[in-house]
Design brief:
301 residues, mainly alpha, disordered C terminus
């Protein structure tokens, strides 16, 4: 029998309480992405200054900026893919054995980051593909049909937004498919779509719960920022400190709990049997082991 969303939320929270280390991948990812982004900006600034001295050509500078931006985005996606794969792997181990470790993060991160990165790139490509919806409005502008163009922009923007929402929903289980089933990027996309379509209500309910938790944290942080904003000078320093705390709170507590929820939902709805977990109400002894016990010599006490 499938678990209810209430059971998944409760069980996920209990698993997180016993395995707070699952926050490590998200905190590590946040810090490493900030450092990588800062280093990339500094390096790009130095190279741009050099290019401006030796090549007084706008096209070369634009091409460099575009290539640099692409490389930085790819690098940040690789970092994120590694730590997300590690976090899902840690959640799987916590559900399977009751405990997880830093070694699990490294094991699953190294094993599945490339497949997850490929899947993320494919999802990004599918997002861009939805831009086809905007083509009629662009054509209308080119033909100086401004009234029609404005109407088309409104309709096509709404359709494009709806397309992106639907795409994000059907692809939400991709990391869990890739890591838990140990499959490739394309197979992960297909599996996520299949599982979501078979469990629409459960996925939508858990989405509401996940976004509800994030929204509540966001509302609390906004209230705190508004309060500290009243205090002159010192308020800005306190707000900065609270911003750092809030980012770590999201990365170290909220996101790990949500990740465990989705891992539980995926395992439960797909019926995957993990090695260390029995989904039966009673723990049965394997037949061969039972025969050995029956035929073995009696023990005298």
């Amino acid at each position: 029998m499938a678990k209810s969303i209430e059971d998944i939320v409760r069980e996920g929270y209990d698993i997180w309480r016993r395995n707070m280390l699952i926050g490590l991948p998200f905190i590590s990812s946040l810090l490493l992405e900030i450092l990588t982004g800062a280093f990339a900006l500094i390096l790009m600034g130095i190279i741009l200054a050099s290019l401006n001295i030796f090549f007084n050509n706008v096209l070369i500078i634009i091409a460099f900026l575009f290539l640099s931006l692409c490389l930085v985005v790819i690098l940040l996606n690789i970092i994120k893919s590694f730590f997300i794969a590690g976090a899902v792997g840690m959640s799987k181990e916590a559900i399977e054995t009751g405990r997880t470790s830093f070694g699990d993060m490294m094991k699953y991160g190294k094993r599945k980051f490339l497949e997850l990165f490929i899947a993320n790139m494919l999802i990004f490509a599918l997002s861009l593909l939805g831009g086809i919806i905007l083509i009629p409005s662009i054509i209308a502008f080119k033909l100086n049909m401004f009234n029609l163009a404005l109407s088309l922009i409104l309709v096509s923007s709404l359709l494009f937004g709806l397309y992106l929402i639907c795409l994000n929903v059907v692809m939400i289980l991709v990391p869990f498919s890739i890591v838990i089933r140990d499959i490739g990027g394309i197979d992960g996309l297909q599996d996520s779509y299949s599982v979501v379509m078979r469990n629409k209500l459960s996925v939508i309910l858990l989405l509401f719960v996940s976004y509800g938790l994030t929204w509540a944290a966001e509302m609390l942080s906004n209230a705190m920022f508004s309060f500290f904003g009243i205090i002159p000078i010192l308020g800005a320093i306190i707000s900065l400190g609270f911003l750092i705390f809030y980012a770590l709170f999201l990365a170290g507590i909220i996101t790990p709990i949500i990740t465990i929820w989705w891992t539980l939902l995926y395992i439960d709805r797909t019926g995957i049997k993990l090695e260390g977990v029995s989904y039966e109400t009673d723990h049965k002894i394997p037949e061969e082991k039972l025969k050995h016990i029956i035929t073995s010599e009696p023990i005298y006490v």
